[in-house]
Amino acid sequence: MQLKKYTDYGLRVLMYLAAKKDDDRVTIDELSGIFNVPRNHLNKVVHQLGKEGLIETRRGKNGGFLLAVDPADVRLDKIIRRLEGDEYWIDCHKPECAIFPACELKNLINEGKETFYRFLSDYTLASLMQNDADIRRLWGQEIPINEA
């Protein structure tokens, strides 16, 4: 199984915002440069994260966005389900599979998917930020003096 790039970008954006320790808003241009990802891809992701209530967005001269929730409240299973669209991992209907009524593959794959999400339910965005000072350094963000 591989997550969609959309989900990957969404998780990166959330991690970047969680690593920031100030109230400076982040722009699409900043993220595009940090992640080397086209602006239009990030625009779509940021739009959805805003609709989900995970980030606060502001348009205009002083626009940008920042994390709107506590990272400890963002469970990984829920955000990945939302970004992935929670679609079936196997599509037995396009084209219609001749053995669909008797096939156990769909059941095994669905159980594996649910096991994957149950595992992730124990982790939050905060879980990914255990090394946030190192992450900020790698992203070129300044470390406040009281944290160095």
Write a brief caption for the model.
The protein is mostly helical and 148 residues long. 46% of the residues lie in helices and 5% in strands. InterPro entries: TR_Rrf2-type_CS, Tscrpt_reg_Rrf2, WH-like_DNA-bd_sf, WH_DNA-bd_sf.
Summarize the helices and strands and which ones pair or pack.
Blueprint: H1 5-19, H2 28-35, H3 39-51, E1 55-58, E2 64-67, H4 76-84, H5 105-120, H6 132-138
Antiparallel strand pairs: 1-2
Helix pairs in contact: 1-3, 1-4, 2-3, 4-5
GO molecular function: DNA binding; DNA-binding transcription factor activity
Organism: Idiomarina zobellii
Keywords: DNA-binding
Note down, in words, how this protein is organized.
The radius of gyration is 18 Å and the shape is elongated. The protein has a single domain (5-142), classed as Arc Repressor Mutant, subunit A (Orthogonal Bundle), CATH 1.10.10. The longest helix has 16 residues, at 105-120. The chain is built from 6 helices and 2 strands; from the N terminus they run H-H-H-E-E-H-H-H. The relative contact order is 0.17. Strands 1-2 form a two-stranded antiparallel sheet. Helix content is 46%, strand content 5%. Mean pLDDT is 86; it is low at 143-148. It starts with a helix and ends in a 10-residue tail after the last helix. Keywords: DNA-binding. GO terms for molecular function: DNA binding; DNA-binding transcription factor activity.
